[in-house]
Amino acid sequence: MVCSCTWLCLAFLSSMFEGWLGVMRNLSSASGRFRQAACAVASALASSALDLLAPRACAGCGRPDLLLCPTCRSLLFRPLSVPAPAYAIDLALACAPYRGSVRRIILAWKDHDNRPLDVPLGQVMADLAPVLARLIDPLLRSKPAKAILVVPAPSSSTSLRRRGRVHLQPILLSLVQSLQQQGLTVRVEPALIMNSVRTKSVQAGGRRNRSRRLAGRIAVADPSRLADHPVLVVDDIITTGSTIRQCARALETAGALPLAALALAAVPPGHEDL
Protein backbone atom coordinates (compact mmCIF):
# COMPACT_ATOMS: atom_id res chain seq x y z
CA MET A 1 0.00 0.00 0.00
CA VAL A 2 1.17 3.51 -0.77
CA CYS A 3 0.75 5.98 2.09
CA SER A 4 -1.34 9.14 1.78
CA CYS A 5 1.77 11.33 1.66
CA THR A 6 3.02 9.39 -1.33
CA TRP A 7 -0.29 9.86 -3.13
CA LEU A 8 -0.12 13.59 -2.43
CA CYS A 9 3.35 13.65 -3.96
CA LEU A 10 2.07 11.73 -6.96
CA ALA A 11 -0.77 14.20 -7.43
CA PHE A 12 1.62 17.14 -7.09
CA LEU A 13 4.04 15.71 -9.64
CA SER A 14 1.22 14.92 -12.03
CA SER A 15 -0.15 18.45 -11.71
CA MET A 16 3.27 20.01 -12.31
CA PHE A 17 3.89 17.75 -15.30
CA GLU A 18 0.54 18.54 -16.92
CA GLY A 19 1.01 22.26 -16.32
CA TRP A 20 4.49 22.20 -17.82
CA LEU A 21 3.23 20.34 -20.88
CA GLY A 22 0.49 22.93 -21.29
CA VAL A 23 3.06 25.72 -21.32
CA MET A 24 5.16 23.86 -23.88
CA ARG A 25 2.19 23.29 -26.16
CA ASN A 26 1.40 27.00 -26.09
CA LEU A 27 4.87 28.12 -27.07
CA SER A 28 4.01 28.80 -30.68
CA SER A 29 7.46 30.23 -31.36
CA ALA A 30 9.17 26.99 -30.32
CA SER A 31 9.91 24.53 -33.08
CA GLY A 32 7.87 21.33 -33.23
CA ARG A 33 11.03 19.27 -32.81
CA PHE A 34 12.02 21.16 -29.65
CA ARG A 35 8.56 20.78 -28.11
CA GLN A 36 8.53 17.07 -28.91
CA ALA A 37 11.95 16.52 -27.35
CA ALA A 38 11.07 18.56 -24.27
CA CYS A 39 7.86 16.61 -23.74
CA ALA A 40 9.73 13.32 -24.09
CA VAL A 41 12.27 14.39 -21.45
CA ALA A 42 9.53 15.53 -19.09
CA SER A 43 7.65 12.27 -19.57
CA ALA A 44 10.77 10.23 -18.80
CA LEU A 45 11.50 12.27 -15.66
CA ALA A 46 7.92 11.96 -14.45
CA SER A 47 7.95 8.21 -15.08
CA SER A 48 11.19 7.81 -13.10
CA ALA A 49 9.79 9.86 -10.21
CA LEU A 50 6.59 7.82 -10.12
CA ASP A 51 8.58 4.57 -10.14
CA LEU A 52 10.50 5.79 -7.07
CA LEU A 53 7.36 6.79 -5.19
CA ALA A 54 5.20 3.84 -6.26
CA PRO A 55 7.47 1.01 -7.43
CA ARG A 56 6.14 -1.08 -10.28
CA ALA A 57 5.03 -4.66 -9.66
CA CYS A 58 3.80 -7.41 -11.95
CA ALA A 59 0.08 -6.92 -12.57
CA GLY A 60 -0.47 -10.66 -12.42
CA CYS A 61 1.43 -11.80 -9.34
CA GLY A 62 2.94 -8.72 -7.68
CA ARG A 63 6.57 -9.58 -8.42
CA PRO A 64 8.50 -6.31 -7.95
CA ASP A 65 10.11 -4.14 -10.62
CA LEU A 66 8.29 -5.70 -13.58
CA LEU A 67 5.22 -4.67 -15.54
CA LEU A 68 4.65 -8.38 -16.19
CA CYS A 69 6.88 -11.21 -15.06
CA PRO A 70 7.79 -13.87 -17.68
CA THR A 71 5.45 -16.43 -16.11
CA CYS A 72 2.41 -14.15 -16.13
CA ARG A 73 3.23 -12.88 -19.61
CA SER A 74 3.26 -16.46 -20.90
CA LEU A 75 -0.22 -17.05 -19.45
CA LEU A 76 -1.68 -14.29 -21.62
CA PHE A 77 -1.42 -16.33 -24.82
CA ARG A 78 -3.19 -19.64 -24.39
CA PRO A 79 -5.67 -19.38 -27.29
CA LEU A 80 -9.01 -21.08 -26.86
CA SER A 81 -12.19 -21.45 -28.84
CA VAL A 82 -15.24 -20.12 -27.05
CA PRO A 83 -18.75 -21.58 -27.48
CA ALA A 84 -20.40 -19.48 -30.19
CA PRO A 85 -22.80 -16.82 -28.87
CA ALA A 86 -25.64 -18.46 -30.88
CA TYR A 87 -26.54 -15.41 -32.92
CA ALA A 88 -25.01 -14.60 -36.31
CA ILE A 89 -21.48 -15.50 -35.21
CA ASP A 90 -20.16 -19.04 -35.56
CA LEU A 91 -16.59 -18.41 -34.39
CA ALA A 92 -15.39 -16.95 -31.10
CA LEU A 93 -11.77 -16.92 -29.95
CA ALA A 94 -9.96 -15.68 -26.85
CA CYS A 95 -6.27 -15.23 -26.15
CA ALA A 96 -6.47 -16.90 -22.72
CA PRO A 97 -8.85 -18.20 -20.03
CA TYR A 98 -10.10 -15.47 -17.71
CA ARG A 99 -8.81 -16.68 -14.36
CA GLY A 100 -5.96 -16.26 -11.89
CA SER A 101 -3.15 -14.01 -13.08
CA VAL A 102 -4.84 -13.29 -16.41
CA ARG A 103 -7.90 -11.99 -14.60
CA ARG A 104 -5.78 -9.74 -12.35
CA ILE A 105 -3.83 -8.39 -15.33
CA ILE A 106 -6.94 -7.50 -17.32
CA LEU A 107 -8.64 -5.87 -14.34
CA ALA A 108 -5.50 -3.83 -13.59
CA TRP A 109 -5.51 -2.62 -17.19
CA LYS A 110 -9.25 -2.16 -17.59
CA ASP A 111 -10.42 -0.88 -14.20
CA HIS A 112 -7.25 0.54 -12.61
CA ASP A 113 -5.79 2.47 -15.56
CA ASN A 114 -2.56 0.48 -15.87
CA ARG A 115 -1.94 1.87 -19.35
CA PRO A 116 1.55 0.39 -19.85
CA LEU A 117 -0.28 -2.94 -20.19
CA ASP A 118 -1.59 -1.70 -23.55
CA VAL A 119 1.61 -2.97 -25.14
CA PRO A 120 1.71 -6.61 -23.96
CA LEU A 121 -2.06 -6.99 -24.30
CA GLY A 122 -1.95 -5.54 -27.79
CA GLN A 123 0.81 -8.00 -28.64
CA VAL A 124 -1.15 -11.07 -27.55
CA MET A 125 -4.12 -9.94 -29.63
CA ALA A 126 -1.78 -9.42 -32.58
CA ASP A 127 -0.40 -12.92 -32.03
CA LEU A 128 -3.93 -14.26 -32.47
CA ALA A 129 -4.19 -12.77 -35.97
CA PRO A 130 -2.52 -15.61 -37.95
CA VAL A 131 -4.85 -18.17 -36.34
CA LEU A 132 -7.84 -15.94 -37.00
CA ALA A 133 -6.88 -15.27 -40.62
CA ARG A 134 -6.68 -18.99 -41.32
CA LEU A 135 -10.06 -19.69 -39.70
CA ILE A 136 -11.98 -16.90 -41.42
CA ASP A 137 -10.53 -17.50 -44.88
CA PRO A 138 -13.28 -20.00 -45.87
CA LEU A 139 -15.93 -17.61 -44.50
CA LEU A 140 -14.60 -14.68 -46.53
CA ARG A 141 -14.91 -16.57 -49.81
CA SER A 142 -18.69 -16.34 -49.63
CA LYS A 143 -18.74 -12.65 -48.62
CA PRO A 144 -18.55 -9.48 -50.75
CA ALA A 145 -15.01 -8.26 -51.41
CA LYS A 146 -15.17 -5.39 -48.94
CA ALA A 147 -12.83 -4.34 -46.14
CA ILE A 148 -13.12 -6.27 -42.90
CA LEU A 149 -14.30 -3.99 -40.10
CA VAL A 150 -12.92 -4.51 -36.61
CA VAL A 151 -15.70 -3.31 -34.33
CA PRO A 152 -15.17 -2.89 -30.57
CA ALA A 153 -17.91 -3.88 -28.17
CA PRO A 154 -19.15 -0.55 -26.79
CA SER A 155 -18.64 0.74 -23.27
CA SER A 156 -21.25 2.71 -21.36
CA SER A 157 -20.83 6.47 -21.10
CA THR A 158 -20.14 6.01 -17.38
CA SER A 159 -17.24 3.64 -18.09
CA LEU A 160 -15.83 5.94 -20.76
CA ARG A 161 -15.85 8.90 -18.37
CA ARG A 162 -14.24 6.86 -15.61
CA ARG A 163 -11.44 5.56 -17.85
CA GLY A 164 -10.99 8.75 -19.82
CA ARG A 165 -10.42 6.79 -23.02
CA VAL A 166 -11.61 3.92 -25.22
CA HIS A 167 -9.45 1.30 -23.53
CA LEU A 168 -9.75 -1.20 -26.40
CA GLN A 169 -8.34 1.20 -28.98
CA PRO A 170 -4.63 0.21 -28.70
CA ILE A 171 -5.64 -3.47 -28.74
CA LEU A 172 -7.69 -2.95 -31.90
CA LEU A 173 -4.84 -1.15 -33.64
CA SER A 174 -2.42 -3.99 -32.85
CA LEU A 175 -4.90 -6.53 -34.20
CA VAL A 176 -5.53 -4.56 -37.39
CA GLN A 177 -1.83 -4.14 -38.09
CA SER A 178 -1.23 -7.86 -37.63
CA LEU A 179 -4.19 -8.81 -39.85
CA GLN A 180 -2.92 -6.45 -42.54
CA GLN A 181 0.38 -8.31 -42.40
CA GLN A 182 -1.63 -11.44 -43.19
CA GLY A 183 -2.73 -9.77 -46.44
CA LEU A 184 -6.21 -8.74 -45.32
CA THR A 185 -7.85 -5.35 -45.90
CA VAL A 186 -8.94 -4.31 -42.43
CA ARG A 187 -9.83 -1.15 -40.54
CA VAL A 188 -11.18 -0.21 -37.12
CA GLU A 189 -14.80 0.90 -37.18
CA PRO A 190 -16.28 2.09 -33.84
CA ALA A 191 -19.78 1.38 -35.08
CA LEU A 192 -21.60 0.47 -31.86
CA ILE A 193 -22.97 2.59 -29.03
CA MET A 194 -24.43 1.65 -25.66
CA ASN A 195 -26.91 3.43 -23.46
CA SER A 196 -25.81 4.26 -19.91
CA VAL A 197 -26.00 1.59 -17.21
CA ARG A 198 -25.60 1.64 -13.44
CA THR A 199 -24.11 -1.82 -12.88
CA LYS A 200 -20.50 -2.81 -13.51
CA SER A 201 -20.02 -4.69 -16.76
CA VAL A 202 -18.27 -7.87 -15.58
CA GLN A 203 -19.71 -8.03 -12.08
CA ALA A 204 -23.41 -8.05 -12.90
CA GLY A 205 -23.04 -11.85 -13.22
CA GLY A 206 -25.30 -14.57 -14.44
CA ARG A 207 -26.17 -15.46 -18.03
CA ARG A 208 -29.85 -14.51 -17.75
CA ASN A 209 -29.15 -11.30 -15.82
CA ARG A 210 -26.58 -10.11 -18.35
CA SER A 211 -28.81 -10.98 -21.29
CA ARG A 212 -31.76 -9.05 -19.82
CA ARG A 213 -29.57 -6.11 -18.86
CA LEU A 214 -28.13 -5.74 -22.36
CA ALA A 215 -31.26 -6.48 -24.39
CA GLY A 216 -31.88 -3.67 -26.86
CA ARG A 217 -29.20 -1.41 -25.36
CA ILE A 218 -26.53 -1.86 -28.03
CA ALA A 219 -27.15 -0.02 -31.29
CA VAL A 220 -25.36 0.98 -34.50
CA ALA A 221 -24.36 4.63 -34.79
CA ASP A 222 -24.31 4.85 -38.62
CA PRO A 223 -25.65 1.83 -40.55
CA SER A 224 -24.53 3.29 -43.89
CA ARG A 225 -20.90 2.55 -42.98
CA LEU A 226 -21.54 -1.15 -42.44
CA ALA A 227 -23.56 -2.50 -45.37
CA ASP A 228 -22.16 -5.81 -46.67
CA HIS A 229 -18.90 -5.44 -44.74
CA PRO A 230 -17.52 -8.52 -42.96
CA VAL A 231 -17.14 -7.69 -39.27
CA LEU A 232 -14.98 -8.88 -36.38
CA VAL A 233 -16.39 -7.99 -32.96
CA VAL A 234 -13.74 -7.43 -30.28
CA ASP A 235 -14.28 -7.28 -26.51
CA ASP A 236 -11.91 -7.41 -23.56
CA ILE A 237 -13.64 -10.33 -21.81
CA ILE A 238 -16.23 -12.84 -22.95
CA THR A 239 -18.25 -13.95 -19.93
CA THR A 240 -21.68 -15.29 -20.88
CA GLY A 241 -21.55 -14.24 -24.53
CA SER A 242 -24.45 -11.81 -24.03
CA THR A 243 -22.49 -8.73 -25.10
CA ILE A 244 -21.20 -10.39 -28.26
CA ARG A 245 -24.66 -11.70 -29.06
CA GLN A 246 -26.23 -8.24 -28.74
CA CYS A 247 -23.43 -6.71 -30.82
CA ALA A 248 -23.90 -9.31 -33.57
CA ARG A 249 -27.66 -8.75 -33.60
CA ALA A 250 -27.28 -4.97 -33.97
CA LEU A 251 -24.61 -5.32 -36.67
CA GLU A 252 -26.54 -7.84 -38.73
CA THR A 253 -29.70 -5.74 -38.51
CA ALA A 254 -27.67 -2.82 -39.90
CA GLY A 255 -26.56 -4.90 -42.89
CA ALA A 256 -23.11 -5.99 -41.71
CA LEU A 257 -21.86 -9.57 -41.97
CA PRO A 258 -20.49 -10.73 -38.59
CA LEU A 259 -17.63 -13.21 -39.02
CA ALA A 260 -16.15 -13.82 -35.60
CA ALA A 261 -15.81 -12.56 -32.05
CA LEU A 262 -12.46 -12.01 -30.35
CA ALA A 263 -11.48 -11.27 -26.76
CA LEU A 264 -8.38 -10.98 -24.64
CA ALA A 265 -9.85 -13.58 -22.30
CA ALA A 266 -12.92 -15.76 -21.85
CA VAL A 267 -14.52 -17.05 -18.68
CA PRO A 268 -14.26 -20.86 -18.58
CA PRO A 269 -17.62 -22.60 -19.11
CA GLY A 270 -19.52 -23.00 -15.85
CA HIS A 271 -17.84 -19.97 -14.23
CA GLU A 272 -19.86 -17.17 -15.84
CA ASP A 273 -20.58 -15.51 -12.49
CA LEU A 274 -16.91 -14.57 -12.01
Describe the structure in your own words.
This protein has 274 residues and is an alpha/beta fold. It folds into 2 domains: 4-53; 70-266, Rossmann fold (3-Layer(aba) Sandwich), CATH 3.40.50. It contains 10 helices and 8 strands. Strand 7 (230-238), helix 10 (242-253) and strand 8 form a beta-alpha-beta unit. Helix 1 packs antiparallel against helix 2 and helix 5 runs parallel beside helix 8 (169-181). The longest helix is centred in the N-terminal third of the chain and has 22 residues, at 4-25. Mean pLDDT is 81; it is low at 1-8.
Please bin the fraction of helical residues.
Answer: 40-55%
Overall mean pLDDT stands at 81
Lateral arrangement of strands in the main beta sheet: 1-2-8-7-3-4
CATH class of the largest domain: Alpha Beta
Count of DSSP H/I helices: 10
Strand content: 15-25%
Structural class by helix and strand composition: alpha/beta
**CATH topology assignment of the largest domain:** Rossmann fold
SSE string, helix = H, strand = E?
HHHEEHHHEHHEEHEEHE
In the predicted model, the low-confidence regions spanning at least 5 consecutive residues are 1-8
Radius of gyration: 20 Å
Tally of individual domains: 2
InterPro entries: ComF/GntX_DNA_util-trans, PRTase-like, PRTase_dom
Family: Belongs to the ComF/GntX family.
Protein name: ComF family protein
Organism: Bifidobacterium asteroides
